[in-house]
Design brief:
The protein is α+β, with helices and mostly antiparallel strands. 22% of the residues lie in helices and 14% in strands. It contains 8 helices and 14 strands. Strands 2-4-3 form a 3-stranded mixed β-sheet. A 3-stranded antiparallel β-sheet has the order 8-9-10, with no helix packed on it. Strands 1-5 form a two-stranded antiparallel ribbon. InterPro entries: DUF1214, DUF1214_C_sf.
Length: 334
């Protein structure tokens, strides 16, 4: 579950060992429960009636609007797809009861997201923020007075936006540069080996009052999950900004893994290629990512994963090249 402003405040799934069953998603303007997932064995004193109705737990959102992401892991494309479809058919979202007192937010419709908004992206973003802000307080409700003052200083008040600066595009570029610098501070980043870094766990997915890091992630990887759910290594050989890789004719990259990436139980890893618009790249092989569920091999042809793998561990490589170039036969996995 992800809040309207990008905070990953609750997760149900195999990574957290969640039980199958019904979960109640309920927003309360009184914040009777702090935002997050509250299992019935923990919240029974507060929400005993719901637990008695058979719910596994209560999910308390920080505000009215949000995003629900459902992901199913596939290990075998031939047989697992049918299993996933069966799980999808058993997964549903239903409304419980009518309107609740104190919650009078309009539906998050295409009209609300688009009607009468500016064609200029910076202005459009602030206009949309003005529309949703009255129904979506800060992730940390104690920060509401300060956030209200900041929004008002930016021209957002009572659901309306009034421009306060003549050139939002230039201001946005300046802010983006400042925020990128903040992301490299020691408290916000972890240095891995060989030029790789990742966000520090405390600034990944759920940001609290750290609005600068939330903005940075919105620029670079919106809807980022908490570190307990996923890790996002970034290639930063110069020690600061992530490198944008490009491929020209007759060029290729070889990604070398010194060993199998360590995984949590039921975890997985993948290397996925995106284009400049952050969409998957069409290619004749129909291959958009490789990982521990791909038939990777060591240089001697022995599988990296699976029952036929005889190596305890070792180095292996992944070839990345333009889609219009036929890969060498010995580099093409099944």
């Amino acid at each position: 579950m992800i809040y309207r402003y990008g905070d990953n405040y609750a997760n149900i799934g195999s990574a957290s060992g969640s039980s199958a069953g019904k979960y109640l998603v309920q927003y309360s303007t009184a914040r009777s429960l702090p935002p997050g997932l509250h299992l019935c064995n923990m919240a029974v004193k507060i929400h005993g009636n719901f637990c008695k109705k058979g719910f596994q737990g209560v999910i308390s959102p920080p505000g009215v609007y949000g995003t629900l992401l459902a992901r199913f892991r596939i290990e075998n494309n031939g047989t697992d797809v049918a299993k996933v479809h069966a799980l999808q058919n058993r997964t549903s979202l239903t409304c419980q009861g009518g309107d609740r007192p104190g919650v009078q937010a309009p539906s998050l419709s295409p009209a609300m997201m688009n009607a009468s908004l500016s064609s200029q992206e910076p202005t459009r973003a602030l206009q949309l923020t003005a529309r949703v802000a009255p129904f979506n307080p800060p992730r940390n409700i104690s920060d509401l007075p300060r956030v209200t003052r900041m929004l008002r200083a930016a021209g957002i008040h009572n659901g309306e936006y009034q421009p306060q600066v003549p050139n939002l595009t230039a201001l946005g570029a300046s802010v983006k540069k400042i925020v990128a610098g903040i992301s490299t501070l020691p408290e916000n980043t972890m240095h891995l080996q060989n030029g790789w870094t990742q966000l520090a766990p405390q600034v990944q997915g759920d940001y609290g009052k750290n609005y600068a890091m939330r903005l940075y992630v919105a620029y670079s990887g919106y809807l980022c999950l908490r570190a307990s759910e996923a890790l996002y290594p970034m290639y930063t050989p110069s020690g600061n900004q992530e490198v944008k890789l490009t491929l020209g004719p007759e060029e290729a990259y070889i990604v070398t893994f010194s060993s199998k990436p360590p995984l949590a139980t039921k975890g997985f890893w993948s290397l996925t290629a995106y284009n400049s618009q952050k969409f998957l790249i069409n290619n004749p092989l129909g291959r958009y990512s490789v990982g521990d569920r791909t038939e990777l091999t060591y240089p001697d042809g022995i599988p990296v994963y699976g029952n036929q793998s005889s190596h305890d561990d070792g180095s292996f490589q992944v070839l990345i090249q333009p889609a219009d170039t036929q890969p060498p036969a010995n580099w093409t996995s099944k």
